[in-house]
């Protein structure tokens, strides 16, 4: 499968790094694995880092929107970092920027999340 | 001898999600003879992915016995793509085209497929018949790197 997911924790924030291709075929596994991590104790916020994501389509938008709803229900915040131009266009077109902040890199996203707490 | 300028290919495959990436990479490889920019390639890969995913999820409801057909042709600097299935068809096309509308919210679909296809291509048409299938026809002019560097 042409998608790799790596997770890390920084205090109450779950960091998910995606590389490869996020489409309908790979979306199910990403969704399942992310929900498992989000369900863990002490996880409040989600930082989705997309630096090495080479391809994404509307199935990926569905995954992002679904996780946003989940985190919001938990009273947390979801942000995205390291977005490349094609993914940026999709996020913009779907109006996701209106509900989610975007940061240049992981460290600026993390410091912003901590201020917000 | 205008026909000599035209090139075309047809691809048929099982309605399995594994084939989504195969379909978009194959179309991208075919179109590469026009020397497209990275952005143009990404646009084409994305719309192929959207249309094929629609056929698999909505047209055939993930039944792998369904067959998706892609016809691609190149004429001068324009690519025409036709992506077809013989699946369920779409009952209300206008509703389906609405941004963020999805008939399958339980699957966490974003409802952006048609909006993306309309935005990324120069021409976009859908023909659908309930019980007969859906055919999406799209066109895009490739400006190409050569034109940009000249």
TrEMBL record, chain A:
Keywords from the UniProt entry: Phosphoprotein, Sporulation
Cross-referenced Pfam families: STAS
Coiled coil ranges: none
Domain STAS: 3-113
NCBIfam families found in the cross-reference section: ant_ant_sig (TIGR00377), spore_II_AA (TIGR02886)
Family statement drawn from the similarity comment of this UniProt entry: Belongs to the anti-sigma-factor antagonist family.
Protein role: In the phosphorylated form it could act as an anti-anti-sigma factor that counteracts SpoIIAB and thus releases sigma f from inhibition.
Protein name as annotated: Anti-sigma F factor antagonist
Designated gene of the protein: spoIIAA
Automatic annotation (TrEMBL), chain B:
Keyword Isomerase: no
Reaction equations catalysed: L-threonyl-[protein] + ATP = O-phospho-L-threonyl-[protein] + ADP + H(+); L-seryl-[protein] + ATP = O-phospho-L-seryl-[protein] + ADP + H(+)
Keyword Cytoplasm tagged: no
UniProt domain Histidine kinase/HSP90-like ATPase: residue ranges: 39-144
E.C. number(s) listed in UniProt: 2.7.11.1
InterPro entries listed in its UniProt record: Anti-sigma-factor_SerPK, Anti-sigma_F, HATPase_C_sf, HATPase_dom
Record's function text: Binds to sigma F and blocks its ability to form an RNA polymerase holoenzyme (E-sigma F). Phosphorylates SpoIIAA on a serine residue. This phosphorylation may enable SpoIIAA to act as an anti-anti-sigma factor that counteracts SpoIIAB and thus releases sigma F from inhibition.
Homology family: Belongs to the anti-sigma-factor family.
Protein name, UniProt field: Anti-sigma F factor
Organism: Paenibacillus aceti
